[in-house]
Structures are given as C-alpha cells and as structure tokens.
Design brief:
The strands form 3 sheets. A 5-stranded parallel sheet has the order 2-1-3-4-5, sandwiched between helices. The protein contains 10 helices and 12 strands. It starts with a strand and ends in an 8-residue tail after the last strand. It is 51% helix and 18% strand. The chain is of the alpha/beta class and 370 residues long. The chain folds into 3 domains: 104 residues, Response regulator (Rossmann fold); 72 residues, Signal transduction histidine kinase, dimerisation/phosphotransfer (DHp) domain (Helix Hairpins); 148 residues, Heat Shock Protein 90, CATH 3.30.565.10.
C-alpha cells in the first residue's frame, strides 16, 4: 500500500518510516502542503498522513483543496497533530479527514489506525468497481430491452396481421397471394428466431458457461461447406463468392462455433455488398496459425465506428444493399467465440473501400482451457 507522509519534521518522518515500512507500506514524503497538492495526483497514494502545523498552507487547508479535486477527493486523509482540542478535531473532520493520530506517536496505535483505514479504502474501491459494473449491467439490460422490444415488435406485428388476414379471408385469396403472405410470416418468424438465438448465445458466453467441443478437423472443408450454403443468397443479389483455401486438417476447433462465426461474416459481407461485386474468402497458414479472411467490396466502415464494431447492440451507419436487417449482436458473439479458441478477430476497412474481416486460430495451442 502507498502512503504519502506530509510533515516538515524529520524526526516524525523517520518514526513513521520505521513504523510503517516493516508493515509492508511504501512511503513517499512531502514537507509542505504545496508540494503535497502537486504530488498526490501524480502518485495516487492509498492514504495520506497529513500534519496540521506546517509552513505555508496548513494541513486543514491542504485537506480542503485535496477534497475539491476530483482526482484526489476519495483518498483518505489522517491528520497528524499534537493538538487534541475538540474544536481542532472537529475542524479536521469537517475538512474531510477520516481520523487523526496524536503526537508523540505510539507504534501500536499508528499501525492499528492506518491498517484499518487502508482496509476501508480498499473495500470502498472494490464497492465502487462493483457499483460501476452494476451500472454497466443496467445499461446493457436497458439496451437489451429497448432492442428486443423494437426488433421483436415489428415481426410480431407482421405475423399477427398476416396470419389474422389468412384466417379470416384466406379462402378468398388466390394461391399466389397466400404464398406471399406465408413467405412474409416465415421471414418475420425467422428474424425473431435469429434475435432470440443471438441473445441466448450472448447470455451463455457472458456467464462463462459456454463450452467448446474441440476436435481436429479441416477448416478448409468447413469454409467450403458454409460458402455453398450462401451461394443461392449471393446469386440472388448478383454477387460472386470466390474461395481459396489451404488444407488445415490438423486444426483443433469447435466446428459448430466456428461455423457460426463464418455464417456471420458471410451474411454480413453479402448484406453490404452491391450487385456485381465479388466477395473473396480465403484461408492461409503461417507462424503456427490459420488465418481466415472474408473481404467484400461494400461501402466500408467509418473510422469512428471501427472501435465499437464488436460491441453488443451496436449497428453501423452503412445500409444493407438489399434492405436486410440485423440484431447488432453477431460480431460481438463471433469475437467472443474466436477468443474462446485463443484466437483473434480483426477488421480492416475504410469508407468506400470495402471491409476485410479476418480471424486467426492457433494450430497447436500449447495450453487450451476453454
């Protein structure tokens, strides 16, 4: 623990060093209030031992200024004083001090008081961190509720409206219209299922309960299989999928999870690619890793959006070329799944130059504890 001693008397400083260093404390020294005010923000001590009677500004004024500074106000201040008058003690507390130690120092009292305040300071910091985590969780929950209510309401409204129409007047519709209504219902329900699956995946990952089923296999074969699944969707938008893979039969990975990552990267590339463009999918090996890349010729990603790209619930300003929608969770889930494999997921992009998403997986990780 770091302690700043603010005292202009060498004897007092020596006694405190002899008392506290054996207790495992690291001490710094300032001999006046002005120096202390400069030093505290720099070293951020866990506790300040502050003499009251000093040249220049006294301990009371030094404490008052420390409590006015957002960088130093939460550091506990214990006054060192030969004064034991009630009004002086009350004034010290009113300035923001948490305790006082009277001179001459008594070893056991100094250690007991300081250890207790260091412990309290540590507990306060831990509580502040937990409160911040709770605030972030509440913010995530609010985003989740807002997104779920919006993204589920629209398809539910479509399903309810078209199904009600079919129930009431389905017999009066021609087969083409009934088929169109059925397709709309199927698409809307599929969008809802995608959202629910993404939310469940994110929840399982965040809770640390996602386990990997690791087996040696060919990532190249999985890529070709996944690309085949999306050939029809690409052709519908007049997009060409070009695949170049290397044999990686010895790679250790969870086929289902990496399949989800590939699905996300491929559907995103198709979603944002214009008609007549090409999407390049490749895999290469180097330096004990396999790198898989999906490069499109879409609108690219703004620089200010790159940092939040892999955050849950974030959606880009770029518009899908076919009016497709998304949950804003796919890339966040993909990144976490790659990290569970001890890999990395990266993006290279700039506006007007398309986007290239790549993930790297170790071929033979020395330690793998997913």
């Amino acid at each position: 623990m770091k302690i700043l001693v603010v005292d202009d008397t060498p004897t007092n400083i020596d006694i405190l060093f002899q008392t506290l260093e054996p207790e495992g404390c690291t001490l710094s020294v300032a001999t006046n209030g002005e120096d202390a005010l400069k030093l505290v923000p720099e070293i951020q001590p866990d506790l300040i031992l502050l003499d009251i009677m000093m040249p220049g500004i006294d301990g009371f004024e030094t404490c008052r200024r420390l409590k006015e500074n957002s960088l130093t106000r939460n550091i506990p201040v214990v006054f060192l004083t030969a004064k034991n008058q009630t009004e002086d003690i009350v004034k010290g507390f009113s300035m923001g001090g948490v305790d006082y130690i009277t001179k001459p120092f008594r070893h056991q009292e100094v250690c007991a008081r300081i250890n207790k305040h260091l412990e309290l300071h540590k507990l306060r910091n831990e509580l502040a961190e937990k409160n911040q985590s709770l605030l972030e969780l509440v913010d995530t929950k609010n985003k989740l509720l807002g997104m779920a209510s919006h993204d589920l309401r629209n398809p539910l409204t479509s399903i309810q409206g078209y199904s009600a129409f079919l129930l009431k007047k389905g017999n009066t519709l021609n087969e083409e219209t009934r088929t169109d209504f059925t397709k709309i219902i199927n698409t809307a329900s599929g969008n809802m299922l995608t959202l629910v699956n993404d939310l469940l995946n994110l929840s399982v990952i965040e809770s640390g309960q996602l386990s990997l089923n690791l087996n040696s296999g060919s990532l190249g074969s999985l890529i070709e299989e996944r690309v085949h699944l999306y050939q029809y969707l690409a052709r519908e938008k007049e997009i060409e999928l070009k695949v170049t893979t290397q044999d990686t039969s010895e790679l250790l990975f969870d086929e289902a999870r990496i399949g989800q990552v590939l699905d996300n990267l491929l559907t995103n590339a198709i979603k944002f690619s214009p008609a007549g463009s090409v999407i390049d999918i490749s895999s290469t090996t180097y330096n004990g890793c396999v790198r898989v890349s999906v490069k499109d010729e879409g609108p690219g990603i703004k620089n200010e959006e790159l940092e939040k790209l892999f955050q849950p619930f974030e959606k880009l300003s770029s518009k899908a070329t076919g009016g497709e929608t998304g949950t804003g969770l796919g890339l966040a889930i993909a990144k976490k799944m790659i990290e569970l494999h001890q890999g990395v997921l990266k993006v290279e992009s700039s506006p007007g130059r398309g986007a290239k998403f790549s993930f790297e997986l170790p071929i033979n990780p020395s330690t793998f504890d997913p």
